[in-house]
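ugh ok so i messed up the first submission bc i forgot one of the chains. this is the corrected input, ALL of the components this time, i swear. 232 residues overall. if the numbers dont match what u have on ur side tell me asap before i send this to the collaborators (the ones from the other lab, u know who)
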Amino acid sequence: MDGNVETATEDTACCVPVGAVDTGALAADVELLSAMGNDTRYELLRRIDGAGGEVCVCDLESAVGVSQSAVSQALSRLYTAGLVTRRKDGNWRYYGLTDEAERLLATLDAVRGDRQ
Amino acid sequence: MDGNVETATEDTACCVPVGAVDTGALAADVELLSAMGNDTRYELLRRIDGAGGEVCVCDLESAVGVSQSAVSQALSRLYTAGLVTRRKDGNWRYYGLTDEAERLLATLDAVRGDRQ
DNA sequence: CATCCATATTAACTATCTCTTATATTGTCT
DNA sequence: AGACAATATAAGAGATAGTTAATATGGATG
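and heres the new structure output, hopefully the right one now
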């Protein structure tokens, strides 16, 4: 009934035991973070963010310095991770940020502002 | 004078040009995100977070399922990325979260709550 | 329907990551 | 000083990820 939760091991000698962690949430978060933690994909996110709304692939291609195939694969991974939306309109595909992505980017901006 | 800022390429036919992006900030963010986006390292962050304060390496070792060496390397990378603090006390090293890490984890919790 | 254009997919190669084992460092205690 | 305990570092093997070139798909248009 208690699902994916482990209890910490017994405390040995030096310090306090560490708390339990929900392994399902861990995996989901890592998926998200590793999708964002790559030059090409993160730049795509920032480009879409900077455009203020949806952007078509053709413009993203010219913005980042990799092949069309690489851009397409990067966008696919971002989509799978739930970071971008995808809309087809005629020949073009438009990508936008999800709320999740917007909030994470906003936090990164805020955190960077403090630390820098 | 205008540093690490690129201007977007000219708009071709289909849509609006994408905005400029600060490449220095991009690299720093990717460093941060890729440091977090790994099972071992993210679990360490969450374990430290769950413990509420500083945790010594010995307890972290027993919590995640990799070797002592792997834990040490993971913590080093987190430290370099500015995600954890490090304090030496006798034989032990205590690791804690930085404000930056705490805020990012909090955002991830909030975002997951919404989407799930 | 033939063709073109925008994007996606596949396959193959290379580079990068992450782990493990072995060894070094640093502090403590007798 | 010598032994031991906790952590860090080095080196190398195996797994994983990112890129490109080539090909496929699907909508638009003459």
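quick check: Residues 56-58, 68-69, 71-73, 75-76, 88, 90-93 of chain A lie near DNA strand C (CB under 10 Å from a C1'). that seems consistent at least. The CA atoms of residues 36 and 46 of chain A lie 10 Å apart.
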